[in-house]
């Protein structure tokens, strides 16, 4: 990205609080970007060649939206925990296999997209995020949903296209979970907890592409209770 182009982007950012440096084949954050640290509300660094996001990302404490998608990241810096105003975070389509515990400090987060990475364990540090609405972990390497999931606060959880074979019955205790997507995993019908159907608040459960047919699911214990919730929500929509 040439100096003239950088200057134009920075001038725009000073006026709007929005900096878009996507699709620039960038491998490092421009050194003088830190001059905008107290101004930026939205930062888009997607579709670049970043392998590492430096700890200095923590100086952008006014950010509400951060897009790191479509890079070559394998980890994320602990300094992300300093972005306490962040509401929307996208790090999809990378090679991330580990998440920093500091994400638990981002208590204003509403939407997190970590799809298409190499994550092997459900990030339970996110249980601290009381305002979380949507968590997307599709296209990762998850194999189970552990007991700790009960503490997650999101309304929608996308676990499509993982390798999940086990789901803790404590998922039924998620206080706000309405939509659960588990399409194209490795689930047997017996792996779907009865409590999830009978006792949870889930009104949209997507299970296509697993190791059983929908007809079998329709005969499962608790299916009728789940369908009552599903139907009630559909009626409210129309």
From TrEMBL:
Organism annotation: Microctonus hyperodae
Keyword Zinc: no
Record bears the keyword Repeat: yes
Family matches, as PANTHER family: LEUCINE-RICH REPEAT-CONTAINING PROTEIN (PTHR48051:SF54), PTHR48051
Gene3D superfamilies in the record: Ribonuclease Inhibitor
Xref: Pfam families: LRR_8
Family annotation (InterPro entries): Leu-rich_rpt (IPR001611), Leu-rich_rpt_typical-subtyp (IPR003591), LRR_dom_sf (IPR032675), LRR_domain-containing (IPR050216)
Full protein name: Leucine-rich repeat-containing protein 57
GO cellular component, one term: cytoplasm
Record keywords, A-Z: Leucine-rich repeat, Repeat
